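Q: What would this chain look like folded?
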Amino acid sequence: MDRGLDVFNTLPADDVRELLLSCCAAPGWAAAVTAGRPYADRAALTAAARARIGALPWPEVVGAVAAHPRIGRPPTGTGRDAEWSRREQAAATAASATDGSGTDGSGTDGSATDGSGADGSAVDRAGAAVAADLAAANDAYEQRFGYRFLIFANGRGAAELVAAARQRLHHDPDTEQGVVRTELGDIAALRLGRLVDDIAAPAPLSSHVLDTTTGTPAAGIAVRLDAADPVDGWRTVATGHTDADGRLRDWVPGAGWAAGTYRLVFDVADRLGADAFYTEIPVVFTVRDAARHHHVPLLLSPYGYTTYRGS
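A: My prediction, written as structure tokens:
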């Protein structure tokens, strides 16, 4: 049994499309892969994902490429796709760090360097040279083709990426477009596997919304989970909709769940109607034991609500 694939096959379509955009930022691709569910196994899912990228209109491919950070420059976001980009570009961004543009102080091979002594200075100079070559290769590629250089960077060093960019400058536009689709497909396939792994972990948080006016479950309620971030304020972790029983189960990935302050935001305007006093209900709570499952239900009425810590 593949729990991750089972969850992927049964999540609400809107939620799956949102998750898929972290793998490839092409709305048409996300919609097509979602529409292809259920998938018999991961190989079928991966094959469909690659095929859908091959069928995308070229402008949508360019849009998906633009969502990736430049090779050698780490992303600034905090979402799942940004974290994956950091992992995939680890070697390239390590080289950039030595020329003062990065922040981790690591050398081209990922080893720490403090810049002291002859060996440290040599590594710094070598890293700065590779970083400059990478930046120049990015610029030349963008001038040649009019869009960002994209490559499957996972496990590849900065020098190897520079060589690949220079080699691809000799392609004609049609040939390069085929290469870009292949690279985008490789990245999407890698991230799709990680996504299915992430959602396979037991969901750390669940909810249940009950309409006390009618005594029935509140189905279709849009719910957002935010995490408190000391730098950026609230950061969205997950979104979902209550099912026919008013429940949210497998919607928050177990991977990355940690102790901290969170906020559930329930969009109840449509459910309660035009005369309702509350249109959106935020529930802020603190997780102290991340290993423990948390259940936060909501009892709903037009002029009031109740929430509590469940089990």
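The radius of gyration is 23 Å.
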